[in-house]
Design brief:
Order of helices and strands: EEEEEEEEEEEEEEEE
Mean pLDDT: 76
Radius of gyration: 20 Å
Oligomer: single chain
Largest sheet: 7 strands, antiparallel
Shape: elongated
Strand order of the largest sheet: 1-6-2-5-3-4-7
Strand content: over 45%
């Protein structure tokens, strides 16, 4: 079954994430002939699908995909319509450039996080390429860093504690003491 998913006002730096699964994506129309990047997590969880489509192009995956993200480099809004779902089309009958690759194991060190004078939730955004998120709190921390974004909710990390999260999802943090620090890196 194929269903249309309109994406309205997609601009550079933003992304749209419809919750869909399937094995075919068709970029049906747009406000301009601008390419749109499509990233998706393969259903086997250890692959990432990356593709750049122009209007009228279609990609097909034997594996199937989920958690799709649409992005553009355009500085003006692009209105798109994508047809997504399951389709019996043969892979040699479709257009577009499709790459399905195992996760590479690259390490992406993130900037240091520091608790502000007025503690606020800090976020490490969703990353479909991430296999593992490694977190380490500074040994000199006097307070607690809550993994989960709220005091008393989630996992408390004291100074010098480490944690590994195997997820591509956004992760929220809340520190209880101004000036406390934590460090993170992503393994992709």
């Amino acid at each position: 079954m194929i269903k249309d998913y309109p994406i309205v006002g997609l601009i550079s730096g933003s992304s749209q994430r419809p919750t869909v699964k399937g094995n075919v994506i068709t970029y049906k129309s747009a406000s301009a002939d601008l390419p749109v990047k499509v990233r998706a997590l393969g259903e086997q969880e250890n692959t990432v699908i990356n593709v750049e489509l122009l209007p009228g192009e279609r990609v097909f995956s034997d594996e199937g995909f989920e958690r799709i993200i649409f992005e553009t480099e355009s500085t003006s809004a692009v209105d798109c319509v994508f047809a997504i779902g399951t389709d019996p089309l043969e892979s040699d009958r479709v257009n577009g450039k499709l790459e399905i690759a195992p996760a590479s194991g690259d390490i992406n060190a993130l900037d240091q996080f520091e608790v502000a004078a007025t503690p606020a939730v800090q976020t490490i955004p969703e990353n479909l390429s991430r296999k593992t998120l490694e977190i380490l709190t500074d040994v000199s921390n006097a307070g607690v860093i809550w993994v989960g974004g709220a005091a008393g909710k989630g996992i408390p990390l004291i100074g010098g504690a480490a944690m590994q999260i195997n997820s591509t999802s956004q992760v929220d943090f809340l520190g209880t003491n101004a000036g406390d620090k934590f460090y993170a890196l992503e393994v992709e």
